Amino acid sequence: MDTKADTFPKLLMRHAEQRGERPAIREKSRGIWQTMSWRELADEVLVLAAALHESGFARGGHLGLVGDNRPRLYAAMCAAQLLGGVAVPLYQDAVGAEMVGPLHAADVSHVFAEDQEQVDKLLEILPQCPLLATIVYDEDRGMRHYRQRELVSYEAFARKGRDVLDSLRGNLLIELQRGSGDDPAAMFFTSGTTGQAKGVVLTHKALIDRAEAAARMEGLQDTDVAVAYLPPAWIGQNMFSYAQPLVVGYTICCPESSETMLADMREIGPTYFFAPPRVLEQLVTDVTIRMEDAGALKRSLYQSALALARRVGADVLTGKPVGLADRLKYAACDLLIYGPLRDVLGMSRLRVAYTAGEAIGADLLMFFRAIGINLKQLYGSTETSVFVCVQPNGEVKPDTVGPAVQGVEIRFTPQRELLIRSPGLFTEYWRNPEATRAAKDAEGWFHTGDAGYVGDDGHLRIIDRVKDVGQLADGSLFAPKYIENKLKFFPYIKEAVAFGAGRDQVCVFVNIDLAAVGDWADRRNISYTGYADLAGREEVGELIAGCVAKVNEDLAREPTFAASQIARFLVLHKELDADDGELTRTRKVRRGHIGERYRVLVDALYGRQPSVRIDAEVRYEDGRTGTLSADIRIRDARTYAAPAAPAALKQAA
User: Fold this and answer.
1) Are β-strands 32-37 and 23-29 bridged in parallel, bridged antiparallel, or unpaired?
2) How far is residue 488 from each of residues 63, 129, 222, 277, measured CA to CA in Å?
3) In total, how many domains does the chain have?
4) In this predicted model, what pLDDT tens digit does every residue of 200-243 receive, in sequence order?
């Protein structure tokens, strides 16, 4: 990289000079793909920077962004950084009350909002955010009669910028060159899994360094294509759809909506892809539903091909020796089944795909690799600019997240907590010196809160969060996430919450996947009126019992986790919801909160009760609250004889 291009706006201007007419970002709108070149993107950034300058935004200011992935949102982000400001992306599905904290904490003065829905949230909380002076909205549908003085349409704001751009161009170029890699570039708020979200401040240098390191490792080029479909407020999406494209020069594509994402992916044909496990789980669920609806012959062929893929597919992908007969069979299946399946998933051109955000089940990872998709695990966090460990090609193992990426140092405390030192580390938690000191010590080591170890192969293995890793009453290791991931591989299970620390057995809450179980019920002529009714059906309970039994059978074969077989479980009467505080905005389970909220269910599981009645408060999309009552049956799970865990493992736990 040119040493002078040490900020994202400088990188953008370099791309505008070197590959000005090549596509920078595409957006699908009303069924048509619209393309913005690098030169057009640079011009738009200058226009917005001029408008921001005229509206009082200056170096050190904070610009909020709330909406889906859109070219204008990324242009606004870069414009703020050109002026020496800091971008603060917010989760678009957050309710207004959740935005107050970040907007107030960061002293946000300007916000770019996608549409009426986001504007309504901001207007609702405006009295609590006195510094918020300007709200620029992109889509004008439904905004005709809005008259608040803080509001301005994107078109009007950009027009203002064009009017003054010529007179300000010199000043803007001065601000551009004044920018330094050590300047704060963005503030990302943590998911709040364990408490109040914190503002993580990351510099241009930190983000660019990690983007470069990963790009070198994977050989990324400006001809690569990626899809931007996850929340821009999540550091993972921001790295893949903003930081890395500006480092490498590859093209980003924004689907029209979450509902059209799969179809849009097939049109895009991405070569580079990033997905958290929950997205991959949903893709497998969709495939499973399709195959169960297919005829008997097609189902039989699919199952036979999948069995072959699981046996030799990963070796074929990495070029390891495979017998001639199996290689020929795999080639035939690739032509008839795996290839069309990759095409259906929009992954026919993928060179590399990453999964991160939380642990992925081994079966889920190997499903994609078996059908010829180079899916790999990476490990990182908001505080580390994502890239800490990555699995190299040819060294993908289900139980690891790979060795440390170039420039990263790792070590462990006696309690197995992972510590990281990296060029990508955050500067601070915004205005929270106490939390900063607790997370990053005087020697620059970041305390991740994750428990793990490095094996003889040099690969990092993450067990779980330190606070969640515990012991059963008999001293056996208990890692709830490991159990939950095994359950979530089944298409019928959307979420699972495992309990057991300090207790004599493991018990689990299960959330069914409404689409998958609904399809299963329809094919068996089982009628139901909604989620709660379906979850309470006896047939569904037996279906989930079968999944739990298979997980226990797997656990029984693993000495480390054999004692953690699930003893009892229940199917929750409602879907876990971020609006009810049960999930974070990145869809991570807040286990502690769920345990307290449903204490009566936990007590019933461990009290050996056959059923329990619960009255739970729920929050609807319009903000209203209500009460949901249900009688929930509790089931004993089938368990299997298992070898005793080695004494050394118990002591290590």
Assistant:
1) antiparallel
2) 38, 40, 36, 10
3) 3
4) 999 999 999 999 999 999 999 999 999 999 999 999 999 999 99
